[in-house]
Amino acid sequence: MQEQGAGGASDSELMRVIATRKLHSVDSHVILSATDARGIIVHVSHAFCAISGFRREELIGKPHNIVRHPDMPASLFADLWRTIQSGRCWSGEIKNRTRDGGFYWVKANIEPLIGSEGTIIGYFAVRQDITAQKTMEKLSVTDPMTGAFNRRYFDMVLPREMARARRERHYLAFLMVDADNFKRYNDTYGHHAGDDVLRSIVDVLQQSFLRPGDYIFRLGGEEFAALFPVVRSEDARLVAERARWLMYERAIEHSGNPPHNRVTLSMGMIVLDPAQKYEQDDVYKYADAALYKAKENGRNRLDVHGEGADVELWRGAAASGEG
């Protein structure tokens, strides 16, 4: 004979109801998904659908990369797959895309599912929504006026990306960018117009450096920088020259910047060879020297450290106060 609770229901019935409620609560509030061994989705929770904007029928049977955001580097997913295919769990932060083209951030824990024969038959992932946290983090490292990353974040990113370039053995370019005769521009057109120019510079850089792994910084005043990986060292010059030309084509009037009489950019760059060792301070120093060499050579140009004669550590323009 089954025992009855105070309300007359049996304990077994009560436990069944609790289990059902528990499953419903998990489905509604926990971002879950499961795939087969190939990464094809076989199950998603209601919470997964709610945050991604996809309907369950749009997800089942699709590769899990249906929610992959283009901002995420391929190297992260390569590491993820190496880890879980070896039978280990993987944990990390991932930016996913929503059905309408937006995004959300999750902290994901992914574990392999082992079948009766000891082989991996699928993968199970539990995620926590960290979008608000990542938004606050971005605000703390972003220049509020232009939207570029700030100097504080540059100091964090440069050593990390230098180490990554050595480890993965790819070239890394560091480009410094400065608006020519910008003090004259502010004096002539006013600081509000000057702020618009700074935002235009960032817009141009964002059009040129838009791949995962590309970074744009405002280092201070009218000085900006881009940090980006390249397959070949010569590719870096092509991308940088495109950004310079895009700014020139905007034809923003600047009467104090002859002979062009428009806003132009001077650039200095160093391309790091993964076979060589560089100190962080040297990277900045050589790019900065190339930038001021570009100023000395007439502005509205790109100079690259190590191309032709070695770039001297020239500081004449900085000392004179003319940019």
Description:
The protein is an alpha+beta fold and about 325 residues long. The protein folds into 2 domains: about 10-135, PAS domain (Beta-Lactamase, 2-Layer Sandwich), CATH 3.30.450.20; about 140-320, Reverse transcriptase/Diguanylate cyclase domain (Alpha-Beta Plaits), CATH 3.30.70.270. Helix content is about 40%, strand content about 25%. It has helices spanning about 10-30, 45-50, 55-60, 75-85, 130-140, 150-170, 180-190, 190-210, 235-250, 280-295, 315-320, and strands spanning about 30-35, 40-45, 90-95, 105-115, 120-130, 170-180, 215-220, 225-230, 265-270, 300-305. The strands form 2 sheets. The chain has a 5-stranded antiparallel β-sheet with strand order 2-1-5-4-3, sandwiched between helices. A 5-stranded mixed β-sheet has the order 7-8-6-9-10, with helices on both faces. A hairpin with a 4-residue loop joins strand 1 (about 30-35) and strand 2 (about 40-45). Helix 7 packs across helix 8 (about 190-210). The chain is elongated. The chain starts with 10 loop residues before the first helix and ends with a helix. Residues about 310-320 have low confidence and may be disordered.
